[in-house]
Amino acid sequence: MLSGPKKMILVCCLLSITQFKFAAAQTVIKLDKEGTEYTTTGFVNGLKLKVEIATDAGEVGISSVEAMFMYNNGYLKKEDILDSRSYETASGEIAEGSEIILRKIQIASVTLTDVKAIVIGSPDAPLLIGQNALSTLGKITMDYAKGTLTIHSGPKNHPAKDPNNPFDISSDKIDLVHIQGGTFGMGSNDSKDNEMPKHNVTVSSFSIGKFEVTVAQFREFVEATDYRTSAEQEGSATRFHDGRRDVFRGLNWRYNSGGFLCTAAEQNEPVLYTSWHDAQRFCEWMSKKTGKHYRLPTEAEWEYAARGGNKSHNTKYAGSSDIEEAGWFLGNAGGQIRPAGQKKPNELGIYDMTGNVLEYCSDWYDGHYYKYSKTTNPKGADDGQFRVARGGSVINDPLDARVTDRHWDDPTSRCSYNGFRVVVED
């Protein structure tokens, strides 16, 4: 059994796994028990290493010491290192969090090929291979008394639901919620000046993302187009750190709110450090890919969806008047962005429209816009300096996370608390 602390840091995914040949209808792997862990010997790119079989994980990880040894001695080639930014130290060491390809892992008569792994920080940790990874080859059984793992050819185990992705959020498509158009009272007469006056607005039917766009979904876009984000072009982004906003060099969409490279477990968190312009390019790519018109929501569409559309219960936040139920904010998030869908959805089944990250809208921001807004499908001011952002984030208090609250940011901004979700026109 994989110990608790290591389970938190040994994370990755598999690009592809190939079974070459089993000697018989089943392959038995003898394991040695070390405390709560089971280990065996394997060959990784031809190098003999101790391999840990995790009984409750699907990850592959390799320690930074092993990765550096493999690289220096020819077992790992430069082209196997996926992220060139992994060479961050003066000595050229492979940094923790770097993604690499292990071309061949052989355990007994089982061979895995082209395995994507993440470099971990523990120098004494054995190579980790999860039981779920091996289960792609066949049905897995463990005999804890005899210390054996058996891979049976034939029907495979049903894959366990990924605890980091309980909603099975796809990396290559967007889950959408259809919203029937209608009329609602937009804004508020008893809060901030820029929310006044409350006024009736009619919006047409549309579909909106069930979740904010995730790191994995944005990665699909970047890998398909070789797109370079604003943060990558400028070489820096803004991170909320120690109670203030500071500019950090090297941050981009690949990093989490703490400033570290995203692990596999964080691929279903909303993508960060993207500008309004980056969100626009993502929508354009999705439109070309699907033939549908993807775009950012207008501010009116966003508020109508957050309120619950024509099923609205008129709650203060999206889906609840209790912000602890509705979303991650300053009082419960500790400044840390969370995976999609952990809080209560609103009346329409949409998640995280309160808190986690602020969400870009298509509109130019004008603090007085509600005084002259159109009443049908308003699209914001004709021009301006800032773009609207809505919903509050992990660094905002409850007042700034209400469904009527209006935020704004420079369209070139790229920071650790802004994200976006998409709309598709009917």
Summarize this structure briefly.
By secondary structure, the protein is of the alpha+beta class. It has eight helices and 22 strands.
Could you give the topology of this structure?
Elements lengths: L3 H6 L16 E5 L1 E3 L2 E8 L2 E8 L5 E4 H9 L26 E9 L2 E11 L6 E4 H4 L4 E5 L4 E5 L23 E4 L2 E5 L12 E5 L2 E4 L5 H11 L4 H5 L1 E6 L2 E6 L26 H15 L3 E2 L3 H9 L15 H4 L31 E7 L22 E4 L15 E4 L8 E2 L3 E3 L1
Parallel strand pairs: 4-8, 5-7, 18-21
Antiparallel strand pairs: 1-10, 2-3, 3-4, 3-6, 5-8, 6-7, 9-10, 11-14, 12-13, 14-22, 15-16, 17-22, 18-19, 19-20
Overall description:
The protein is an alpha+beta fold and 426 residues long. It has 2 domains: 4-152, Acid Proteases (Cathepsin D, subunit A, domain 1), CATH 2.40.70.10; 176-425, paralog of FGE (formylglycine-generating enzyme). It is built from 8 helices and 22 strands. It starts with a helix and ends with a strand.
**What is the total number of structural domains?**
2
* Cα separation of the termini: 50 Å
**CATH top level assignment of the largest domain:** Alpha Beta
CATH topology of the largest domain: paralog of FGE (formylglycine-generating enzyme)
CATH architectural category of the largest domain: Alpha-Beta Complex
Q: Tell me the strand order in the biggest sheet.
A: 3-4-8-5-7-6
**Fraction of residues in helices?**
10-25%
Mean pLDDT: 85
Q: Which class best fits the helix and strand makeup? A: alpha+beta
